[in-house]
Specification:
By secondary structure, this protein is of the alpha+beta class. It is about 60% helix and about 5% strand.
C-alpha cells in the first residue's frame, strides 16, 4: 500500500511540474509573439508609407513633391540629416534603449502639400513627412536643423510605434510586419492611421526628451540658438500643427527663453547667425 501511495505521489508531483513548465513555456511563447521589435519597423513603415502615397495620389487636396521633379529640395534636406546623423550627440540618442533604431539610419523624407497644413509627422521605419507650408514658415537653416533633429530623434527612439500601438492593436502592427496590408474601411484604415500620426500629440515628457536631443544637435553643429528661439517666439500665435503634436509644459515664449539662456549657457551654444542655404531652399517651395 505504501509502495503504491509513494509511487502515485511521485507521479503526481512530476506531472504537476510538467504542467507548470508547459504553462510557463506557453506564456513565454505568447508574450514573445506580441513584441514589436525595431526589425519589424521597416515592414510596418513600408506598408504605411505605401498606403499613404496611394492615399495622397488619390486625394484632391493632398499632393506629393516628387523627388525626381524636386531633387534640390530633397538633396538639401538629405545633407542636413547627414550632418545631424554624424553629430556625436545624436549617436547617443536611444543609447539606453536596446530596441532603438540604428544610429546611422538616414531618414526617408516626403514633402507633401495640403493648403493650410503646417506640421510634420513621423512614420515607423525612418519615414519623415514634412508639410510644404510648414517648411515655408521656417526662415533659416538654424531653425530647420533642430526641427529635423527633433523628428529624427522621435523616429530613432520609436515613439511613433508607441503611439500607433496605443491606438491600434499590437496584432495589427505585427500583421503589417509580416506583410499584411492596410485595407480601406477597416478599423485601422490609412485615414485613421494618418490622423493618429499627424494629429494625436505625444506625451510632454517625451517631447522634452526630444527637445533636449534637438538642442544638443544645433549646438554641436554650430547653429545659433537665438535664431531657433526667435522662431518659437515668432510662431507662438501661429497655431502651427507642430506645437499641437509636440506639446511642451512651458509656453512657447518660456521655451524660447530656455533655449536662449539655459541652453546657450549650459552647452556653450553661441554659433553665428548663419542663414545657410535655407532662403534658397525656401524659394524652391513656392
Amino acid at each position: 500500500m505504501n509502495f503504491f501511495f509513494t509511487r502515485n505521489f511521485y507521479f503526481a508531483t512530476i506531472a504537476f511540474f510538467i504542467v507548470l513548465l508547459t504553462i510557463s513555456c506557453e506564456k513565454e511563447a505568447v508574450e514573445a509573439k506580441h513584441i514589436i521589435t525595431s526589425e519589424d519597423d521597416a515592414n510596418i513603415g513600408r506598408a504605411i508609407d505605401q498606403a499613404l502615397l496611394t492615399h495622397i495620389d488619390t486625394s484632391s487636396d493632398l499632393s506629393l513633391l516628387n523627388q525626381q521633379s524636386h531633387p534640390a529640395i530633397y538633396n538639401y534636406i538629405y545633407q542636413i540629416s547627414q550632418s545631424i546623423n554624424g553629430s556625436s550627440g545624436f549617436l547617443t540618442v536611444g543609447a539606453n534603449q536596446s530596441n532603438a533604431l540604428s544610429p546611422s539610419a538616414t531618414p526617408t523624407v516626403r514633402v507633401i502639400h495640403k493648403a493650410g497644413y503646417t506640421g510634420a509627422f513621423v512614420v515607423p521605419g525612418g519615414y519623415i513627412y514634412l508639410y510644404k507650408d510648414f517648411l515655408k514658415n521656417i526662415n533659416y537653416e538654424a531653425q530647420f536643423a533642430p526641427v529635423l533633429a527633433h523628428l529624427m530623434a522621435c523616429s530613432k527612439s520609436r515613439y511613433d510605434i508607441e503611439k500607433l500601438e496605443a491606438r491600434f492593436s499590437t496584432n495589427f502592427l505585427l500583421d503589417l510586419a509580416l506583410g499584411g496590408k492596410i485595407n480601406a474601411g477597416s478599423g485601422a484604415d490609412i485615414c485613421s492611421i494618418l490622423d493618429v500620426l499627424e494629429n494625436e500629440p505625444y506625451q510632454t515628457s517625451i517631447v522634452e526628451l526630444l527637445d533636449d536631443e534637438a538642442e544638443k544637435a544645433i549646438c554641436e553643429l554650430g547653429y545659433d540658438v537665438q535664431t531657433y528661439s526667435d522662431w518659437f517666439i515668432h510662431n507662438r500665435n501661429s497655431n502651427l500643427n507642430w506645437y499641437q503634436l509636440f506639446p511642451r509644459t512651458q509656453s512657447s515664449n518660456d521655451y524660447a527663453s530656455h533655449l536662449f539662456n539655459d541652453v546657450k549657457d549650459s552647452l556653450s551654444c553661441s554659433g553665428e547667425v548663419d542663414e545657410g542655404g535655407y532662403p534658397q531652399f525656401k524659394s524652391l517651395l513656392n
